[in-house]
Amino acid sequence: MSSGAPKGENCLVDMDSKAGDMFGAEEAQPTGTGGAGIMAKLWLPKGFSVGMMKEWVDRRRVSIRPWASFVDQRKFSKPRNFGEMCQRVVKNVDTYNSNYTFIFMGLILYCIISSPMLLIALAVFAGAFYIIHLKSLESKLVVLGKELTVPHQMSLAGAVSLPVFWLAGAGAAVFWVLGATLFVIGSHAAFRELEGSDMEELLMEPV
Description:
The chain contains ten helices and two strands; from the N terminus they run H-H-H-H-H-H-H-E-E-H-H-H. It is mainly α.
């Protein structure tokens, strides 16, 4: 009878130690904070990272030029000739590339928001890609003897959602975004006068 007590104590000690290990393992797992922590729990494809996207946006935000100077009407004038217009376009695209990037993204966002069918098509594409990716994590997807990589999975998701994109008029939306981008950015780059530093660089360049 005396040997039963130590066994019971050992049992309790083992249970406590296992419970402690379980809680310790949960604390050791990085949970993240905010939206990044939620996104980190998703099974994102290799090469796609929330941190990478955030870093890219932060770099663009740092290099962006002040919008007040960007749209200052006093800095706009008609170029004297075709050569000056080409110089302005080249220099302004290099100077305001981050501003132009955000304009391009804004036009894409406007096009998507203003077209409910396009929103549905993008949702179908995202859902198809996510389901295919989850299946590939459970077991390798092999087609014609080749394993489907992330680009192949995106292509397959695009093929599945292609009819919805066609019904949504995605082709017309793409041409509208490209046309509007070329018009807005091209007009600004051609009529925006160069900064003083850019003019000095042009004057110092050998003819």
